[in-house]
Amino acid sequence: MATHALNPATSTYSRGVLYDWLTTTDHKKIGIMYVINSFLFFLIGGILALVVRTELAAPGLQFLSDEHVYNEMFTMHATMMIFLFVIPMLAGLGNYIVPLQIGAPDMAFPRINALSLWMLPLGGILLISSFFTGGTAAAGWTSYPPLSLDGPLKSPGSGQDLWIVALILIGTSSILGGINFLVTIFKMRAPGMTLFRMPIMVWTVLVTSVLVVMATPVITSALVMLFIDRNYGGHFFDPFGGGSAVLYQNIFWFYSHPAVYVMILPAMGVISEVLPVFSRKPLFGYKAFIFATAGIGALGFSVWAHHMFTTGAVFLPFFSLLTFLIAVPTGVKMFNWVFTLFRGQLTFSTPLIFAIGFLTMFLIGGINGAFSASVPVDFALHDTYWVVAHIHYVLFGGSVFGVFAGLYYWFPKMTGRMLDESLGKIHFVLMFVGFNLTFFPMHMLGLEGMPRRIADYAADAGWNNWNMAATIGGFVIATSILPFLWNVFASLRNGKIAGDDPWEGNTLEWATSSPPPPYNFDHLPEIRSERPVFDARHGVEGH
Amino acid sequence: MPDTASKVTEGAASIVTADSHAIVTADHSPVGGLAHDARGGISNPILGMLLFISSEVMFFAGLFAAYFSTRANFVDANGVKEWPPSEFAHILNPFSLILVATIVLILSSVTLQMAIWAIRKDDRRGFIRNMAVTFILGILFLVMQAIDYSWLFADGLTMGSGPFGTTYFTLTGFHGAHVFGGVIMLGVVLYRGLTGQFSSRHHDAVEAASLYWHFVDVVWIILFSILYFL
Fold it and tell me: Which of A26, A58, A147, A114 is nearest to A520 (CA)?
């Protein structure tokens, strides 16, 4: 056997730092660039949200010149937050963590991985460039035709076309990333790492990737048809030309409903890593969690039309029933998490606090979502601020809190430095208070009938106070980002040295140095359970 | 220790020893050593291509769904429910150039498969000969489709001629784009074959490209049957 030990040092040679990062195929550097790129779009999307909230603080049009500009603002806010922040941010965390957690040296296709990364800023730049080419897309992130079709009262100009092209690029990036994850997870696991010994994070990325690979091309097809309708005189979606607007909605939601699981499952994976570590217990019901994740993924493909109850063109009982069914696997997960915490030795470090923020806020988001699964209730709540409250409780209360739990948890691994705990807690408190101040009033606004996507409302509609509260909350959320940014900046310069395993973690990323060397591992511990590093620390008797 | 038992697959570059728990590799790069066939079974490029093809299937599923939905809802200006609309029915004749193009595409799949069988037996001359024929057949299909398009345009069927024209050109156009992508793949494989990069042990790229080409071929057979006969 011609063998010599894997020595990471031999495979590197010196290059300029910038050149190195721009041309890297190392999944860790790519993962970090994913995170940075996504965070930049989080900031831009956040500023757009503040513009929206500022306009809505009081009745009348004070801040923006006209309603069309308002439409552009909320359209770009949602588009950036969904396609350029939440999805790629979670893909970036996965990119960094998944190969480490399965004991692999890199992703299966490192160069395709780099391609997936670099398509994102390209798509983002295309999207942003529409600000300077006569106006952005303004038909909402859903871009339903006929609003999104070309026409004097619809979406003239190149903004909508740039939006379409940007989304196709970002979608292609997602698909390539999903394929890469699947091959990595199926083919590159370390010896002993059976499927049912994989960390939950890896499982959630696996199911997410299946959704991405099978659903994203479907929205690509909707987008190219929209593009053809707008530019080549097509007749897919314009009812006056023999097309069907509901057809677009069906194809769009066939992707976009699974997409909400793409946006939440990896965040569930993150907190399923954090909760056991900080309660000093294994995850309660490991296999149940995996089957629940797969169940959500499978059900995710059969509930898309619950976004279309009011069109009158879908079979209501079927989609209502299946939507309610989603609550079952999600409920299983709530039990997994709560009973992981139950009688654990909790250390309230920042990652755990954000994970509990996820747990509580996502619970509210799940419950207020289940209301809308009921057809008669949905008819009353459709397109009101109730829906805005729901989406933010799951995507902000869920995904964003999960993202921050992950960032605080893995920052020491990525950089070798600890983040400051006090600043982290200030960040959490501000964000948690601001979040609830912004989005809880939207439930009341929705019940009182305030429609979404309006720039102005009557002064005597009784919506003034809740809107003002939501706007103040929005600025509190924005403020909460400042301690986080300062924390990252200061900790990178002189944060506490983390060491290999600052949290006494369970999974393989804690078995290598912080930050890990190129190709990740010199030695792997023996893998006999889903907690190989725990086993190595305590021996098999530790169980 | 059954889980960490030594696992040595033929041609694999990575070997795991049970006693040291360390990953050791043969003498090329660590990633290359671990990335290929580390776990045996289907190779990474083939699995990647199969997943890519499944996403392409979903892309065409979206287009086909739009086609059937549009077709089911179609009523012409006079309130007549007829598909293809009467003014275009005579234009679409399956027994013309398009049938020849179909046969060309099916033939190209056959020659490609012959190329695969050749390289599996290390018959490089046979491989290159069959690859070249496949490549030319692929280009021939595209040329025929272009000619057919020009005839349809001359007869007044365009993207803008109602839902029928839109769906026809979108479906066949995106298929054509995939054929174009496939031809580029075949060209790369042919070039690499000419420089002697493939052997019976090492030809994942050929297998992956052939999977893609067969997929494109199958899409066309379904498309042709639906558009011209159904």
Answer: A26
Query: Residue B5 has what DSSP assignment?
Result: -
Nearest CA among A212, A27, A37, A216 for reference residue A120: A37
Q: What is each CA distance from A245 to A205, A328, B69, B71, B92, in whole angstroms?
A: 33, 33, 11, 14, 28
B23/A110 touch (CB, cutoff 8 Å), yes or no? no
Q: Indicate whether B227 pLDDT > 60.
A: yes
- Which structure tokens are listed for A23? 């041309």
Q: Which residues of chain A have pLDDT under 70?
A: 1-14, 151-156, 540-543
Considering CB atoms only, which of A228, A244, A251 is closest to B170? A228
Question: B48–A180: do the CB atoms touch at under 8 Å?
Answer: yes
With beta carbons less than 8 A apart as the criterion, state whether A467 and A446 touch. Answer: no
Residue ranges of alpha helices (H) inside A280-315 are 286-300
**Cα–Cα distance, B116 to A230 (Å, whole number):** 43
pLDDT at residue B89 is higher than 90: no
* Distance of residue A33 Cα from the nearest chain B Cα, in angstroms: 21
Q: Which distant-in-sequence residues (6+ apart) come within 8 Å of A514 by Cβ?
A: A412, A413, A414, A415, A416, A498, A499, A500, A502
Q: Is A221 in contact with B62 (Cβ distance < 8 A)? A: yes
Contact A105 B35 (CB under 8 A): yes
Task: Identify the residue among A3, A4, A175, A247 best suited for mutation to test binding to B, counting B beta carbons within 10 A and taking the highest.
Answer: A3
Which of the residues A218, A240, A250 would you substitute to probe the B interface, choosing the one with the greatest number of B C-beta atoms within 10 Å? A218
Neighbours of B200 (CB within 10 A): 13
- Given this model, what pLDDT does residue A190 score? 94
Name the residue among B219, B191, B221 with its Cα closest to residue B205: B191
What DSSP state is assigned to residue A500? S
In the predicted structure, residue B36 carries a pLDDT above the cut 90 = no
Quickly list DSSP for B65-132.
HHHHHHHHH---TTS---SS-HHHHTT--SSSHHHHHHHHHHHHHHHHHHHHHHHHTT-HHHHHHHHH
Q: Do A141 and A79 touch, CB atoms closer than 8 A?
A: yes
Residue with tokens 């998490």: A337
CB A92 within 8 A of CB A31: yes
Contact A526 B4 (CB under 8 A): yes
Q: What's the sign of the alpha-carbon dihedral B64, A181, A356, A342? A: positive
Q: Which residue blocks in A232-315 are alpha helix, DSSP H?
A: 245-279, 286-300
**A262, A134, A144, A285: which is closest to A205 by C-alpha?**
A262
CB contact under 8 A, B55 and A213: yes
Residue A216 Cα distances to A92, A205, A252, angstroms: 18, 15, 10
The predicted model gives B175-204 an average pLDDT of 96
Q: What is the ipTM of this complex?
A: 0.93
Residue of A nearest to B41 (CA): A187
Question: What distance in Å separates the CA atoms of residue A354 and residue A338, rounded to the nearest whole number?
Answer: 14
CA distance, residue A240 to nearest chain B CA (Å): 11
Shortest distance, CA B125 to any CA of chain A (angstroms): 31
Q: Could you tell me the two tokens for A480?
A: 């909460």
The token duo for A241 is: 């030309």
Tally the C-alpha atoms within 13 A of residue B66's C-alpha that lie toward its C-beta: 38
Name the residue type at position A20.
D
Note whether A108 and A152 are within 8 A (CB): no
Cα dihedral across residues A12, A13, A16, A22: positive or negative: negative
Q: How confident is the model at residue A444, as a pLDDT?
A: 96
**CA–CA gap between residue A321 and residue A332 (Å, rounded):** 18
Edge to edge, the sheet with strand B23-25 lists: A4-5, B23-25, B14-16
The closest CB to that of A3, out of B4, B15, B31, belongs to B15
What is the C-alpha separation between B92 and A524, in angstroms, rounded? 64
